[in-house]
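TL;DR need structure tokens for one chain.
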Amino acid sequence: AGGGRLIDRIRKWYYNAAGFNKLGLMRDDTLHEDDDVKEALKRLPEHLYNARVFRIKRALDLSLKHQVLPKDQWVKYEEDHPYLEPYLKEVIRERREREAWNRK
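>> reply
TL;DR here they are.
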């Protein structure tokens, strides 16, 4: 049980050290937009997509100004949920099925 807590502390430390949360970004906002991610983004419900666009635009603005959000507005490790993950998993599964079908 102690090892799990240590790993969780390391994850939280790394999460904060990465710095994207200080700009108001979530982990999924920082994914490289390859073809799979682009397709997953098309499938996001409008409110999730709009929230992502807002966070990214705000982060770009802050970055250009060499600023970060006030600490009380940083995305906390516990609040960062993988909103894109279910859509991305579906896209990858479909692509793999197509690839397998095309190999037949």
